[in-house]
Amino acid sequence: MKDIQNQRDYRNIPINKVGIKNLRYPITVLDRKNGFQHTVATINMYVDLPHKYKGTHMSRFVEMLHSFRLELSLKKISMILGEMKRHLNAASAHIEVIFPYFIEKKAPVSQSPGLMDYTCKIIGSSDSEGKVDLISEVIVPISSVCPCSKEISETGAHNQRGEVRMSTRFKKFIWIEDMIEIVEKSASCEVFSILKRIDEKYVTEKGFGNPKFVEDIVRDIAGKLKQDDNITWFSVSAENFESIHNHNAYALITDG
Fold first, then answer.
1. What's the predicted TM-score (pTM) here?
2. pLDDT one-digit tens code per residue, 107-136
3. Cβ-count burial 66-90 (b if 16+ within 10 Å, e if not)
4. Residue 102 burial (CB < 10 Å; 0-12/13-18/19+)?
5. FRET partner for 226 with CA separation of 20 to 30 A, picked from 77, 166, 195, 217?
6. Same structural domain for residues 75 and 157?
């Protein structure tokens, strides 16, 4: 059959990224406690396309992904990028894997167990010289109490749920659980899926005893990451879904 994609294109315009987006696919990822965890990812895969080719072979992206789906680790991401370049005759390759990661988390006092889900993202690229760049990202729900509100109010202070997005480059493997722990310990209080009344009392009092602006949260996280020799680059942002304003509060630090 005629291969239309390999036909010549005479417009002389190369394409930076061409491929597939929003492919939902079952994957297996490393789990510190249980060894492995099955989840469903949304995957984007791209390669560059030289000016002389009309198109790329979209089906090959899925074929390559299928051969690696039993374990999608950082090491395997590097291998997938190499296979993408080889099978599609590309100089560069890119992949983004976004997936929910579940951790069993017990309530702080009652110890009632529940599952917390965290959005995780692995971003990988390989350039024309074969240099591989990997970024690991977690999105962690947190709660915060406003220091200003607490200071100026005779009773109480406004508090809200927020979200911290932390991305890192590193020398050696980092567990997802360790990244999440860094974030949760830097908030006014962490978030739980199950809370009994005795737990609600605990988290409320903990938060009010540990008020933080979004600026405090990103600075505390950045301070911990700067002290880790394994981290070569990071980006951390905090966004509060404000309870008394018609806007969100936001802060970002990028380093490395």
1. 0.89
2. 999 999 999 999 999 999 999 999 999 999
3. eebeeebebebbbebbebbbeebeb
4. middle
5. 77
6. no
